[in-house]
UniProtKB/TrEMBL annotation:
Residues 15-238 form the Radical SAM core domain. This is Pyruvate formate-lyase-activating enzyme. Its main location: cytoplasm. One of its GO terms (molecular function) is 4 iron, 4 sulfur cluster binding. It comes from Halanaerobium salsuginis. Its EC number is 1.97.1.4. Keywords: 4Fe-4S, Cytoplasm, Iron, Iron-sulfur, Lyase, Metal-binding, Oxidoreductase, Pyruvate, S-adenosyl-L-methionine. Activation of pyruvate formate-lyase under anaerobic conditions by generation of an organic free radical, using S-adenosylmethionine and reduced flavodoxin as cosubstrates to produce 5'-deoxy-adenosine. Belongs to the organic radical-activating enzymes family. InterPro entries: Aldolase_TIM (IPR013785), Organic_radical-activating (IPR034457), PFL1_activating (IPR012838), Radical_activat_CS (IPR001989), rSAM (IPR007197), rSAM_sf (IPR058240). It comes from the Bacteria. Gene3D superfamilies: Aldolase class I.
Amino acid sequence: MTVGYIHSIETLGTRDGPGVRFVVFLQGCPLRCKYCHNPDTWQLKDGQKITVEQLIKKIIRSRPYFERSGGGVTVSGGEPTLQFAFTLELLKKCKEENIHTVLDTSGCTDPDKFRQLIPYLDLVLLDIKELNKERHLALTGVSNDKTLEVVKIMEKEKQPYWIRHVVVPGYTANKSNIASLGRFLKNKKHLAKVELLPYHKLGEYKWEELGLDYQLTDVAEPSTQLMQELNSILEQYNLNIA
Ligand code: SF4
């Protein structure tokens, strides 16, 4: 009986994959993104203990709500690959039940472990926080080497994926950065969609509650016009934009 630590469950999610999603937010994350809106997921042991069997029972009960929309289960976090054994078993059980599966990941994971998840994944949502190595380190506290390795693995293994990228004014929200992302993603065969996500401040209060220093207090959320401009840059690279 594999035990995991979860932060929360969203039974009618609409943002993390196709259709209506049963989203499991796992606890624990090796990144420290400056804009994180869920810093309460960072510490593994702060989560609620649950077995895969208990979680699958909840998923089966919700099945009528997500299945008819073409949805399924999304395993998110935190960073869901951190609890590798739990995530692997959960995905296996979902596939035994013929449920559509999505992994929402930063890609900061052991490449060999990631390969083991692929047979049980219909889709991967990969966050590329920053393409530039130094700026990725400054924004998240970790290197992006593993994330970029995950892109290579998915291309080699023919794993369908979406790329998501948070647009943060003063950090990632500039035209040359988005053009670099476009060049990098152009001609990727198994990339189905690219989503630019506007930075938001909804999690700022959690940093305060946890006694953490939120460094983006003075950073404004990007305007609709800026998001349109950046999306139009990506479109020049023949990418399917969400
Ligand atoms: S990867 Fe996600 S959960 Fe982890 S720090 Fe970044 S935004 Fe937060």
